[in-house]
Design goal:
Blueprint (H helix, E strand, L loop, with lengths): L7 H6 L6 H13 L4 E6 L18 H8 L3 H10 L2 E14 L2 H9 L11 H17 L6 E12 L1
Length: 155
């Protein structure tokens, strides 16, 4: 299922890689807000960009990520200024790949708005570092990235 802000409950129900515990916390927060919350998920916030799984392998993406993603304070201010208040905030680890080799294969497609900005040489070098890391970690351990779950309610 594609991510679409009009079908968030269905997207979350489909799993989106979040742990069952995180989904249950999210659903409980929505219920507590009596159905008046407006949930969003933010996979890239300024405070956690260094924890993005590909960041260590592509050194030049740091400034690109920081110029692209907003801080949590800015996101919250945007909603508060529009007449909402933060009802719930949690950070969950979202699985992006079953293991490092799967992640390297996915990244090799370069289907990422940040990675596409790298020149071919920078991308190839970073992919080589990522594949070396995957080779050194052959175990089937999930690759995760922190995702901020926020729910706002009208005031």
């Amino acid at each position: 299922m594609d991510f679409d802000r009009t079908n968030l409950p269905a997207v979350y129900d489909a799993g989106r890689g979040y742990s069952p515990e995180a989904l249950n916390r999210w659903r409980a927060a929505i219920s507590r807000a009596a159905g008046t919350t407006h949930p969003i998920d933010v996979a890239g916030v300024a405070e956690r960009l260094d924890l993005h799984p590909y960041a260590p392998f592509f050194p030049k993406v740091g400034p690109m990520l920081r110029s692209t993603f907003a801080s949590l304070a800015l996101i919250e201010r945007f909603f508060v200024d529009a007449g909402f208040e933060l009802a719930f905030h949690d950070v969950v680890d979202s699985e992006v790949a079953a293991c490092w080799s799967d992640y390297a294969e996915r990244i090799s497609l370069r289907a990422d708005s940040i990675l596409i900005q790298l020149d071919d040489h920078e991308f190839a070098e970073g992919l080589e570092r990522l594949r070396a890391h995957a080779s050194a970690h052959p175990e089937r351990q999930p690759v995760t990235e922190p995702t901020d779950l926020l729910a706002f309610e009208a005031v």
